[in-house]
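Lecture 7, part B: from sequences to assemblies.

Below are the input chains for today's worked example.
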Amino acid sequence: MTQAPVTEDAGARVPTATARWARAPWLRIGVVIGVIALAILLAYVRSGSTVVVTQAVVTGILIGGVYGLIAMGLTLIFGVLDIVNFAHGAFLAAALFLSYYLVAGLGMHPYLALLVVLPSMFLLGAVVQKVVLAKAMGAPLENQLLITLGISLIIENSLLLFFGANPRSVNFPGDRGVNILGAVADLSRVLAFGGAIVLAGLLFLLLQRTSLGTAIRAVAANDTGAQMVGIDTRRIYMITFAIGTACAGAAGVLVAPLVTIEPVTGALFNIVAFVVVVLGGMGNVVGALLAGLVVGLAEQLGALLLPGQSPLLTVFIVFVLVLLLRPQGLFGRSA
Amino acid sequence: MTAADTTAPAPAKALPALPWAKHLVATGVLAVVLIPLPMLLDPAAEAVAIRVLIFAVMSISWNIMSGFGGLFSFGHAAYFGIGAYATAWLQVERGVSPWIGMGVGMVLAAVFALVLGFLALRYRLKGAYFALVTLAFAEMLRLWATNSDLVNRAVGYHVPLQVEESWVWMQFAPDSAKYFYIAMGLMLVALVVSILFARSRAGQFAVATRDDDEAAAALGIPVMRYKLATMMVSAALMATAGTMFLQYYLFIDPDLAFGSAQSIQAILPAVIGGVATIWGPVIGAVVLGPLTDVTATLLRNPPAFLDFLAGRGGLDVVLYGILLIVIILVLPKGIYGALRERWTRR
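Predicted structure of the full complex, as structure tokens:
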């Protein structure tokens, strides 16, 4: 694992409070829920309408599930390979274009595209790891970060080069409004949320209940130790990166009907995914899913609290506060 | 090899004579070589040369903070944008000369770096966390500028055109050599600042704290103060590139100013040329700058096998990406770093 960056220092400054904080995960979750409740209350005071606030909460949770799925892949890669992957959003963009061509070109159903995109992205991830990143394992963090930056530049601009900058969109034929607790959400959003939760659950089962998952967790905890008990760490690195990339790919299929598909679309998701990963605790897969919901809510409620500003601004404010005050994340660090 | 240039702590040995003077002489020689250049270049090549110079300023600035100082910045666009926006705002809204705007931009960028640095270092963010917080600050500026009436929202600013060439307004005929000389002047100043910084107490301390900040602190070096000074110098230099960009291209908007593309433009030349070396960023800029024009020319009249790419953009950045990966895997010390190693081994 990585060197724990700040925990000890914070502990040295305020020993008792931090120790209590670290011992009680439920206290932390309680604080998070309390802050969200406060934000909801403020949003209500500010907008004066229950419908608006309910709508924001529902939309936030729905998109938050997708953020969670994207971030799970990113945080898994961080936890196991120790790489801050700047190419994650670019992989998502590649998946968006792939599903666009499957739907618009081959007439495939937008959600069936998953059957093609998921394995393709898994393969792409495996190849990229094997061909490029494996050569830089153990290099300084900055170098690996720069390599993933290079990969993202290559993918995004290849998309621009081959497909042009025209915005595209995937049409989901059965899309309609669905009523949830008095708020209206597009069916595609609900499906994206449901799909993300199901896939996140599958990933969790894979990590917890299979021998591959055990091996992945072992490498995350201690790669030298894992190697000593006979785990092929290089294979685990490759598979983990491939799984992480497949998460981005799956998220790409799920959000394809919701977003404008451009080569730069992935970059936005990339930044949000970083926020989610830090919030959830780098390397903490379950934390990433929970933090995804928090970020989704922050985005939507922020739009009500700071009208006229971009919803993302609130997300960044939350991000900077968490980075400064609790860089190990809201839910601690573990793989 | 100089003390400032070594990445790993050198084995205990008498310090070699520091070749600062050599670097300064080389800068002088570079100036002499550059001066006649506008007379030899056609207008298109001169535009490329100016872009190379702006790249070099950006990357020299990044290299001071992230190369010598070891504080990996992924948000240098923040300082670039502050320089460009301060100049544009003062010029358009208040009728102030861009030279003063440049100075104001430098001060504002340095203050911004001070605040960012204080927060990040006070809470001891390192490595990836530090990089992410710089990225977040640049993105916040971009989002704020995009939605703020104070700076014209997403529209940004066009520099008001002057009727005649004017030094006061830093505005000349589009292919005037004066743009070249201003950019050259900025680049030379940045180089000299970089050399003087690397040899100064602050620079030596910055390197010491980069290599081992606990040891440096134990020796009594006020780590925080020198890191902040490093960031402020770097930010102020980056702001001048923002002003130059604005005055040359006459236009700025939030994405151009604060987008991560500018941060990447600042990183790439230094990494390709050689991180934590004086000349790396310059060499990297010379390699990368012309790529955009070469590829644009290639795709304007593509050879038969590239016909389907006619008129498309993006090829240059794909090449940047490939070059970046190859350099890191094959020459992790960059072009200049690798060359220097070969020379010193003989």
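Note for the exam: The interface with chain A takes residues 72, 119-120, 122-129, 131-133, 135-137, 139-140, 143-144, 146-147, 260, 264, 267, 271, 309, 312-315, 317-318, 320-322, 324-325, 328-329, 332 of chain B (CB under 8 Å). Keep this in mind when comparing with the next example.
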